[in-house]
Amino acid sequence: MSNVPAYIGLFFLPHGVRILTLYFYGWRGMFYLLPASLLMLILSENQTGLSLLSPIVSVPCCYLGVQFVRILFSDTISVSFAIKDWKLMFWGGVVGSIFNGFGLTLLNQTYKSTVDNSALLLEVMGFVVGDVLGLIFCLLSIVYLFRMIRFIKIVPDK
Predict the structure, then answer these.
(1) In whole angstroms, what is the distance from residue 137 CA to residue 16 CA?
(2) pTM of the model
(3) CB atoms inside a 10 Å sphere around CB 153
(4) 134: burial class by Cβ within 10 Å (0-12, 13-18, 19+)?
(5) pLDDT tens digits for 31-48?
């Protein structure tokens, strides 16, 4: 039997959606994401066993990660799909994933009687790997979708 908890996904695609929403809508994006996150958690609670507080921890952690990277590396508030903004989205997603991993791990440890440091690190790394792989897939899908749209000329060039 594996030591990795069942609630850690290796390829968590909703993380990419969270990062895009929080990048473009800022703090208002949290209000858009919380209902969907709670619904997803309620529908999968029997399979994952996550706490109902997970979305309340996860969404603000992702927001803080995106804003942390934006404050450190961006010289403007406006957002677009320029190359610089893709990099900010990616690194904001990575930092948000790290914050999310720590937040969810601390939340999940409150229900356990014993704490093993190696298990904590494995849990944080599991969240980070799953979130980042989902983010990469989401961003690459959007890049190729935009290229396909440009190639078939659905949106005419100006």
Answers:
(1) 8
(2) 0.83
(3) 8
(4) buried
(5) 999 999 888 888 876 666
